[in-house]
Write a structure and sequence with these properties.
The complex is a heterodimer. By secondary structure, chain A is α/β, with parallel strands linked by helices. Helices cover 19% and strands 31% of the residues of chain A. By secondary structure, chain B is of the alpha+beta class. Chain B has a single domain, classed as Jelly Rolls, CATH 2.60.120.10. In chain B, the strands form two sheets. A four-stranded antiparallel sheet of chain B has the order 1-8-3-6. In chain B, strands 2-7-4-5 form a four-stranded antiparallel sheet, with no helix packed on it. The longest helix of chain B is centred in the last third of the chain and has 26 residues. Classes of the chains: A alpha/beta, B alpha+beta. Strand 10 of chain A pairs antiparallel with strand 5 of chain B, so a sheet runs across the interface.
């Protein structure tokens, strides 16, 4: 699959270490449309390529948006890019959030930290086709209030009568008037019906494991729980084996998995 | 205005309690309203009450001279707040402050402790329910300490 040159159109600093890039094709050739949950390989020329989830609106694919955290050499270099700089884009890759399977059901979107970025396209899709779904809850946990992503958008979503937004942080000073506690403490606040709910979860693996246990306690079935996995993805095509997890390749068979298809693998410490 | 009995009977914490036990608890209960910034209880004070939050949000805080008040947990609608009344020396370990107007049912723990001593079936039922809350809280605290969103 080809790498296409893209210009940086906009850069927005989300938190002290997390930023959003909006990209536009440098030439006529560009990557194809994407689905919620997929990722691209972003290439900082001469330095390296990293897999980054697409965090824009799948119904508006010409605005190619990625939010990422500066953690390694490539993403740290990416943070320094400015409008007009160029990088390479290859993709889109991977499986998508089951927004079609969720039609007619209640939806719980549970996310922690930067996990909101890969789930934002699913939220956009659901809000763009709001009548297709029952109750929708967004439960979002972060380390501190300063680590919350997309704060203006969260505020707008919170004002909607057709979307329940519950946010919690793990620690806060006395100025924060919102919830304090881990994201799982928000689960009882959701008014979704466990018998007819599909859950989409994205966050650190420990957070997802705790969340799944609480959803199971609430009565959700494993086949109605979907998670997005993160592994060391390199080729994006299921060839190089870097992201292999047992018999699956996270880049090709994932990153979005139905939990019952992954539960035995996720529990294995050796892989 | 709704009386306390149906409110408690409909709460998941009291679900399944025999009527006579519920009546004993109702006898120890009263309605309470707290204005924003008002404390429900303060660290070090005698703990004689626990609360069933009906509406509003409560911040459970501790104070650090360097950082000021630090919120370690919030409690909201439906939550049961406070178990220091159940454990000697019956002193609050944290502050609890209303972040907004809070409506709650205040249950006199001292009164309830005496009733539990006289009726061990009631005591066992309450202990089972509080053990669940304490276990959930312990699990959440451990999860919180993992700092999973850090690099």
């Amino acid at each position: 699959m080809m790498t296409y040159p893209y210009y940086v159109q906009k850069v927005r600093q989300e938190t002290y270490d997390t930023f959003t890039l909006e990209l536009k094709p440098a030439k006529e050739q560009e990557i194809g449309p994407f689905e919620a949950g997929q990722f691209n390989m972003l290439y900082v020329f001469g330095l390296g390529e990293v897999p980054i989830s697409i965090s824009g609106d799948p119904d508006n694919p010409e605005r190619l948006i990625h939010t990422t955290r500066a953690v390694g050499p490539v993403t740290q270099a990416m943070r320094k890019l400015r409008r007009g700089n160029m990088l390479g884009v290859r993709g889109p890759f991977g499986t998508n959030w089951p927004v079609d399977k969720a039609v007619g059901k209640d939806v719980m979107i549970i996310t922690g930290g930067i996990g909101l970025a890969p789930l934002r396209p699913a939220i956009y899709h659901i809000l763009n086709h709001r009548d297709d779904y029952g109750k929708v809850s967004l439960l979002y946990g972060a380390r501190t209030p300063e680590d919350l992503l997309y704060t203006k958008e969260l505020e707008k979503w919170g004002q909607r009568s057709d979307l329940e937004v519950h946010i919690s942080v793990d620690r806060a000073s006395g100025d924060w008037k919102g919830n304090v506690g881990v994201v799982t403490t928000l689960i009882p606040k959701s008014t979704t019906d466990p018998k007819n709910t599909l859950a989409m979860i994205c966050g650190p693996e420990i957070m997802m494991r705790f969340t799944i246990m609480d959803l199971q306690k609430r009565g959700l079935q494993n086949q109605d729980i979907f998670i997005s996995m993160e592994r060391n993805m390199k080729c994006g095509l299921g060839v190089c084996g870097h992201c292999q997890l047992g018999g699956v390749f996270v880049c090709k068979d994932g990153p979005v998995f139905r939990y019952d298809n992954l539960k035995d693998l996720i529990a294995k410490r050796e892989i | 205005m709704q009386t306390i009995e149906p409110l408690l009977a409909g709460h998941s914490f009291f679900k399944g309690l025999p009527k006579e036990h519920l009546k004993l608890i109702v006898g120890c209960s009263s309605n309470a309203i707290f204005n924003p910034e008002q404390f429900l209880f303060r660290e070090g004070e005698e703990a004689n009450t626990f609360y069933v939050i009906r509406s509003g949000r409560v911040q459970v805080e501790t104070f650090s001279p360097k950082n000021g008040p630090i919120t370690i947990q919030t409690a909201g609608e439906g939550d049961v707040l406070g178990w220091s009344w159940l454990v000697p020396p019956y002193h609050w370990r944290f502050d609890a402050k209303a972040a907004e107007q809070v409506r709650a049912i205040a249950i006199d723990g001292k009164c309830l402790r005496e009733k539990c001593e006289n009726d061990h079936n009631l005591g066992y039922e309450l202990m089972k329910r509080f053990a669940l809350i304490i276990a959930e809280r312990l699990e959440a605290t451990r999860f919180q300490l993992l700092d999973v969103y850090g690099k």
